[in-house]
């Protein structure tokens, strides 16, 4: 209880402790000295802590949200190279806003280089004077593949973008 892990039934944990045997009472106890979430549970807990921290700073406040232009003239797209998500987004933009130009920033969206590349791509598009809106998109993937999108540096880059950004 003192660790405030808010564990739920079925979560996998790693426990380090020491056994205690009380022969007179026929009791056996395991005194836990440390408990850590194991696997995906640890990642989810870390994401929830980060979300709470960023929310407390006001990064998710409604007042920060910018209206998306009704008819954007130039749309920046941050996406993976040769991704189905890229083709889907570009096809949709061209069908709904045929007069709009599309500026694509291809980047890594998973793996060790993804976070820095996503941040650089967002910053590059947000610095373009004629970009009306930025779309940050990627396809599906495993939980681990999607983690760069939840990285604090990416969230801060999205929050600091001076134009509306849609994910």
Explain what this protein looks like in three dimensions.
The strands form two sheets. Strands 4-3-5-6 form a four-stranded parallel sheet, with helices on both faces. A two-stranded antiparallel sheet has the order 1-2. Strand 1 and strand 2 form a beta hairpin. The chain has helices spanning 40-56, 84-96, 114-126, 143-146, 152-160, and strands at 13-22, 27-37, 74-80, 101-107, 133-136, 165-166. 18% of the residues are buried. It has 167 residues and is an alpha/beta fold. It starts with 12 loop residues before the first strand and ends with a strand. Helix 3 packs parallel to helix 5 (152-160). The model has no long low-confidence stretch (mean pLDDT 87).
Brief synopsis:
The protein has five helices and six strands; from the N terminus they run E-E-H-E-H-E-H-E-H-H-E. The model has no long low-confidence stretch (mean pLDDT 87). It is α/β, with parallel strands linked by helices and 167 residues long.
List keywords for this structure.
single chain, 167 residues, alpha/beta, four-stranded parallel sheet, two-stranded antiparallel sheet, 25% strand
Question: How does the SSE layout of this entry go?
Answer:
Blueprint: E1 13-22, E2 27-37, H1 40-56, E3 74-80, H2 84-96, E4 101-107, H3 114-126, E5 133-136, H4 143-146, H5 152-160, E6 165-166
Helix pairs in contact: 3-5
- Given as residue ranges, the uncertain stretches (5+ residues, pLDDT < 50) are none
Question: Structural class, from secondary structure content?
Answer: alpha/beta
Biggest sheet strand line-up: 4-3-5-6
> What characteristic shape results from the CA principal axes?
elongated
- Average pLDDT rating: 87
Rounded to the nearest angstrom, the distance between the terminal CA atoms is 38 Å
Number of DSSP strand runs? 6
Percent strand equals 15-25%
* Largest pleated sheet: 4 strands, parallel
Radius of gyration over alpha carbons? 23 Å
**Count of helices?**
5
How are helices and strands ordered from N to C? Answer: EEHEHEHEHHE
Helical content class: 25-40%
